[in-house]
Amino acid sequence: MIRIFPLLLCLIVFVGCSKEEAPVTLQLNWKPEPQFGGFYAADYAKHGLNVDVRPGGAGTPTIELLGAGKVPYAVVSADEIPKAREQGIKVVALFAVYQKHPQGVITQSKRGLKSLEDLFKTPGTLAMESGLPYSDFLKNKYGFDKLKIVPSPFGDLSVLRTDDTYAMQCFVTSEPLAAKKDGLDVTTFLIADSGYNPYATVLATTEEYLRANNEQVRLMVEAVAGGWRKYLEDPAATNTLMHGLNPTMDTATFADSAAAQKPLIENDETKQNGIGVMTIERWQTLIDQLKTLKVITTDIMAADCFKPLVP
Amino acid sequence: MIVHDASRQFDNGLLAVDGLSISIPAGQFLALLGPSGCGKSTLLRMIAGLDRPTRGRVDVSAGGVGYVFQDAHLLPWRNVIDNVALPLELARLPANQRDDRAAEALNLVGLSEFGAMYPAQLSGGMRMRVSLARALVGRPNLLLLDEPFAALDEITRQQLDDLLRGLWQRTGMTILFVTHSIQEAAYLADRVIVLSRRPARVMLDHVMAMPSSRDAALRTSAAFAAEARLLFQALERGERL
Amino acid sequence: MNVRRLAYLAWPPLTVFAGVFAMLEVAVRAGWIASFLVPRPSDAIKSLGANFAEIAGAFMATASAALRGFGLSVAVGVVVAVALSSGGLVRRAFYPYAVFFQTVPIIAVAPLLVIWFGFDQGAVIASAFVASVFPVIANTLSGLMSVDAPLVDLFRLYRARPLAALVKLRLPFALPQIFTGLRVAAGLSVIGAIVGEFITGSGLGGLIQVARQQRKIDKVFATLLVTSLLGVAMFAMINAVARLTLRHWHASERTEGA
Fold first, then answer.
1. Of A3-7, B123-127, B205-209, which one has max mean pLDDT?
2. What is the mean pLDDT of chain C?
3. Which of A62, A186, B117, C240 could form a disulfide bond with A74, CB atoms 3.0-4.6 angstroms apart?
4. Count of CB atoms situated within 10 Å of the CB of A214
5. Using 50, 70 and 90 to split pLDDT, how confident is the model at A13?
6. Which of C154, C156, C172 is facing B77, going by the closest CB pair?
């Protein structure tokens, strides 16, 4: 009699466990912030999915994680995808949060600079991730000879605060708002306004995973789209959740940031064809730009880089 | 040199020496014989000035002290001649005087050709001889030795015993030789003081009845055996206290 | 160091290197290891050749900063250790703060250093210094405090002045321990320099960052190889100086290895 008990226990646990699906990971490439709001707001269970949204940080190698098969879904920047495909990592974009790229350059207002062109003509320091394509784009367009290029401090405003010849890369939904809250008077320039505008905060997977899990991917995209529609309408509850995961940004900034990013997420295209939609023309433009910058050297097909949203 | 009612108690309560009084005339070769840990090294250190008695007094007449430790303790990064010259260097003697005196001291211990060698290249016995030369280089009036030959083999030990006694006879310095070897005490000294176990008290203060020129043959003579037995009995009594 | 001895020391590790190189090459070519995670060793070497001028220039910058940071650590470390060895109260009061240099994660301190020193070599040198000073202090102090008591007595017997005792006894006695500290500090100074360069963007550290962001994994590994060579070179230099300085201390011919 006594011996049956542990056996029964194991059976119950086993049956209980197998009812639940093993969680599927969505790897973010930064800390939980409004740029990921829709991913946290999504009701995955309603679509029969068990999704673990995993925060990232500075330098999270989301492309490599996808390529190594460590995670099935990850957030990447669109301009990472052609290069990854060239190296044999067959990444496919599924959903683009930002229609307008939020990458920008932030600097103290008292410098009186009116545009990015001005910034590159004035001696000073610029902190950015020098290996990324947008950096090559800026170098190509404006030239770096007047500037000292240093690595990005990834959100740390200390040097910006003290040095008035200093500019740094930023996400327009993040650093400018933090600076304002700190009482720092800053000007932000969008890279997109200079002509480089890949999709940003893109949900991606690999061709391999897509082929093996076609139905799940479809449900995933549906859930994410629903999450973003919900978040855009009412971000408050999700912001509270994300603030709990990332206390470095306070609730007021969460709200401001969510509001600031709306015009970058919604445009005429999305109003017609849904949030997250991508077009082959824009992908082709990106590929052409990357070729000019010599980031990629072979012919990558635009159609291979993304899976169109099913309306 | 006089030790007057000296006591030494350490911070941890250990009483190493208790009310010891010894008077040593100049030029004497005195052996302090006692069991391990009885406090004889402590007494020697007090005489050398490396330690002070917690009670009583130690008076040493002027004229420099030489000290030979249980191990040679040479500075391994210096060659032999520089090791020997160390005391003179610390006294800030000019270089040429140092060199001459050091060479002289090395000669006394029979190691003249070894000046340029390093301690790592020498045998145990040779290193002890260098240590002896170092103790002598200052031309001290008082030479203190703390079981210096205990770690050496018998042959070397006897050679060094003879060397020491020869040096004593040539220079006429006062020698205080601490040992736990009855043989050695009997062979070397004019006078032997046997100490009890800790805290050290005098068990026997005996002038040796032996010829002044001594050699290997003496070690096996009947007279030697008799003296040795005397010392042994005193040692035993000291153990049983 | 004669040719025979050099060969004797060099062929075992070089054989291991060649073996690992060959195995990795086969593994990556065959696809057992993904080429975007680890490059083919031959590609890393090719990248080293293709970017030689750039990597060599970065090497000079990093080496200069690491060596200067290391030199500073030696000078400051020995002086501090001597000061700490002078008395129990001084030691108990200040040693815990020296331990701070050991425990603070350099990656947390480096951004502060850049704020103070700017995006220049100064910050990289400071970073190399902070990372490497503690082993020098700890080992030097240990060496100074462990002088044989009879030798201390000897110096007291001859009424040596404290400065004479320091220079003629305690420092020479501490040399083997000091060299141990230097060996550890050398590697740490390279790490400290690289971490500093992650923030300033200069030298080998900056190169690794950019190559990583560009996804040029072959260049990353080429740079890593050069970085480790820097560490090895510094280590070898210290060993050579140690052997030269300490050669009389031990039974000569039988001293084995580094």
1. B123-127
2. 90
3. A62
4. 11
5. low
6. C172
Long-range contact pairs involving A262-266 (C-beta distance under 8 Å, separation at least 24): A262/A232, A263/A100, A264/A98, A264/A99, A264/A100, A264/A101, A264/A102, A264/A172, A264/A173, A265/A97, A265/A98, A265/A99, A265/A228, A265/A232, A266/A99, A266/A232
Name, in order, each residue with C-beta under 8 angstroms of C242's C-beta and a sequence gap of 6 or more: C176, C179, C182
Q: What is the structure's pLDDT at B56?
A: 86
Q: How far apart are CA B16 and CA C112, in angstroms?
A: 58
Confidence of residue A33 (pLDDT cuts 50, 70, 90): very high
CA distance C206 to chain B (A): 44
Say if CB B156 and CB B78 are below 8 A apart: no
Top pLDDT among C250 and C83 is at C83
Residue type present at position A125: T
**Residue C37 CA: distances (Å) to CA of A68, C214, C218, C229:** 8, 14, 10, 22
Q: Is the pLDDT of residue B147 over 80?
A: yes
CA angle A179, A181, A183 (to 5 degrees): 75
HSE-up (13 A, CA, CB side) for residue A255: 6
Instruction: Collect all residues of chain C within an 8 Å Cβ-Cβ radius of residue B118.
Output: 248-249
Mean pLDDT of B177-182: 90
Whether the CB of C71 is below 8 Å from some CB of chain B: the reply is no
Q: Tell me the CA distances in angstroms from B30 to B149, B186, B207, one per residue in order.
A: 16, 10, 9
Q: Say if strands B29-33 and B174-179 run parallel, antiparallel, or are unpaired.
A: parallel
Contacts of A150 in chain C (CB under 8 A): 119, 199-201
CA distance B209 to chain C (A): 34
DSSP notation for A285-311:
HHHHHHHHTTS--S---HHHHB-PPP-
pLDDT value of position C104:
85
pLDDT in tens, A270-309: 888 889 999 999 999 999 999 999 999 999 999 999 998 7
Between chain A and chain C, the number of residue pairs with CB atoms below 8 A apart is: 55
Enumerate the residues of chain C whose CB falls inside 8 A of the CB of residue B70: 150
Among the partner residues A88, A129, A130, nearest to C35 by beta-carbon distance: A88
Closest chain A residue to the Cα of C203, Cα to Cα = A150
Flag whether the pTM goes above 0.90.
no
**Exposure of A311 in the CB half-sphere (CA atoms within 13 A):** 6
Across the interface, of A63, A68, A125, the residue whose CB is closest to C119 is A125
Q: Is B115 on the interface with C (CB under 8 A)?
A: no
Quick one: tokens of A308? 């169109």
B-C interface: how many C-beta pairs under 8 angstroms? 55
Mean pLDDT of C159-173: 93
Most confident of B197-206, B221-230, C36-45, C157-166: C157-166
pLDDT at position A21, please?
A: 65
Q: Do C114 and A64 touch (CB under 8 A)?
A: no
User: For B146, which residue in chain C has the nearest alpha carbon?
Assistant: C150
C167 to chain B, any CB pair closer than 8 A? The answer is no
Nearest residue of chain A to residue C198 (CA atoms): A151
Interface list for chain C against chain A, based on CB atoms closer than 8 Å:
34-37, 111, 114-115, 119, 198-201, 206, 209-215
Judging contact as 3 or more Cβ pairs under 8 Å, the answer for A and C is: yes
Task: Give the pLDDT band (50/70/90) at residue B208.
Answer: confident
Which among B32, B41, B71 is positioned nearest to B176, based on CA atoms? B32
